[in-house]
Predict the structure.
Amino acid sequence: MAILVLGGAGYIGSHTVYELIEAGREVIVADNLQTGFRKAVHPKARFYELDIRHRAALDELFEKENVEGVIHFAASSQVGESMTDPLKYYDNNLCGTACLLQAMVAHGVDKIVFSSTAAVYGEPERVPILESDRTEPTNCYGETKLAMEKMMSWTARAHGLRYVALRYFNACGAHPDGLIGEAHSPETHLIPLILQVPNGQRKSISVFGTDYDTRDGSCIRDYIHVSDLARAHILALDYLTEGGESDVFNLGNGVGFSVREMIDVARSVTGHPIPAVEEARRAGDPAVLIASGKKAAEVLGWKPVYTRVEDIVSDAWRWHSGHPHGFE
Ligand code: UDP
């Protein structure tokens, strides 16, 4: 029996495929390669180039392969783009997931683990954030992810499917062997942008907002290593296989670092001065996002291995310095 990883050529998907294969699992990857990279797919995974909105292609895959469970990363994930092109997000994230769930129900595949996000909370009512806290997304990306969670929940009630939604905080780092890592175009995330400075691809890093009510005025986030996220997906799938109920889990380290602190960490990891330029706030950024990872620890037995941000930035730097143009 194989595990089907949708979006397995993307950043978190490709790392999860590596973890699954390193754990001896049989893996099938499907990806439309719109933002993912064929080269990011582990050579031992069977690969299908398909779009999850294409029902006939999904039917063909489910008929051909013996799929025991699905891990679903196939979605658009840029906050800024979701605000300027919301219908792209409704189409890819919601129509895509509806099509996938219809195919799963039709083929009797009843377990799914999928990427959700801290963006479902919007401006948090308190930190650390608990899974039961208010969900009120402030951007369209978070809105579609929350709607995906609800779509799973209603489908679970109607058809007996079970799901785990994993709400990631700030995914970063790269596989410690340096073979795969983060590659977005355009890049919008803090750590890869910071590392473009020592890589000679940008002169300085912008600090978006220096007047937040935080210890140094810049935003605070919970940075979590992609390999720790990847392991959580395997634990979640095993939890469902053992009969676990549908549920939602935060994935973070439970510790916050400011933008300025992350720039300092990158300076010490790379030995480069990394000039920073203070800029206005970016629209829609909450001041502080920190996860409570207690539930994932208690129910899934998940504990992050990479608790030092220096180690996370160091793995990211190994990847970016060795692959300044990503997978190109
Ligand atoms: N950020 C920044 N400069 C940049 C990119 C991001 O100051 O060039 C800040 C951003 O405002 C946020 C934090 O870094 O407070 C993390 O942003 P990112 O886009 O990496 O992740 P997000 O928190 O939006 O998921």
Notes: The first strand starts at residue 2 and ends at 6.
